[in-house]
Amino acid sequence: MSAKRHILILGGTTEARRLAGTLAADPALRVTSSLAGRVARPRLPAGEVRIGGFGGPGGLARWLREQHVDALIDATHPFAGTISSNAAQAAADARVPLLAVRRPGWVAGPGDDWHPVGSLAEAARALPALGERAFLTTGRMGLAAFAHLEGMWFLVRSVDPPEPPMPPRTQVLLDRGPFTVEGERELLRRHRIDVLVTKDSGSSATSAKLTAAREAAVPVLIVHRPPPPPDVPAVEDPAEAAQWLRRTLG
Ligand code: NAP
Question: 55: Cβ below 6 Å to ligand 1?
Fold first, then answer.
């Protein structure tokens, strides 16, 4: 039997991929990254990779026990609330130490015209008062919230093609970050965007649109994050997570 310590990283983010790269280089560790399987051709991290759901918190707890996981790191996207809550429950049940990697949210600066909302549904309610041509960067899964807005035009950017329901006047742009300010500026100009809708993902890879919106005086509807599960220690970046792991494994 191998004496390697087994680390499970719940992934799907740049931070998770970076962390897997750092940890997989350590010969004392066995590193498994778990992806949900939402993206057709994901960028694969270093180390082992498993893809697909665990079957709720019970399934994840079973996986932690059966695979002899020594530490669990939840490096999922800040809006992936279900898996984070499952991770908290499963780690407690299986008595496996858990750490969350949570990148900080975006902060409005001078010149920003941000309108914070609590959900995509709230964003859809507020949208018609702010503009007519919206740039939606909220992911392909949440388009149903905007499907009834027949009078508005939408530019939707996503990694894989979105599925209906979606607004009738929609142009889809398949692309994946990181994005540049120059590119975002040009996109807003070319499509005559007058309102931007985004989730507060807080990633530097996708923040260029906020700079471009500020420059063009385009208002931004920004959806707040769901609350993280209580009592889960959290750090902001992969380097801090690697330090936590060293302390935790002793
Ligand atoms: P979610 O709503 O929190 O999770 C729904 C279900 O998907 C979970 O109950 C779990 O199924 C499965 N799942 C989610 N993440 C998983 C993972 N890393 N490994 C294995 N199973 C996973 O998640 P979501 O918002 O759909 O996000 C799915 C994935 O995409 C996450 O890994 C996240 O990091 C990434 N992502 C999400 C967003 C976003 O805006 N939500 C943006 C970029 C990337 P079971 O209950 O069967 O275990």
Answer: yes
**125 and 214, same domain (yes or no):** yes
Q: Are residues 40 and 135 in the same domain?
A: no
- For residues 208 and 147, the answer to whether their CB atoms sit within 8 Å is no
168 vs 122, 143, 163, CA distance in Å?
A: 19, 11, 12
What CATH number does residue 208 fall under?
Answer: 3.40.50.1980
Predicted TM-score (pTM) of this structure: 0.95
β-pairing, 29-35 vs 48-51, is parallel
Is 45 touching ligand 1 by the criterion CB < 6 Å? no
What are the strands of the beta sheet with 170-174, ordered from one edge?
A: 114-117, 220-223, 195-199, 133-136, 153-158, 170-174
Pull the structure tokens for residue 143.
């388009």
CA distance 127 to 197: 8
- Answer yes or no: is the C-beta of 206 below 6 A from any ligand 1 atom: no
Whose C-alpha lies nearest to ligand 1, atom 34? Answer: 76
Q: What is the pLDDT of residues 42-91, one digit of tens each?
A: 999 999 999 999 999 999 999 999 999 999 999 999 999 999 999 999 99
**Whether 13 and 70 share a structural domain:** yes
Query: pLDDT for 11-40, tens place per residue?
Result: 999 999 999 999 999 999 999 999 999 999
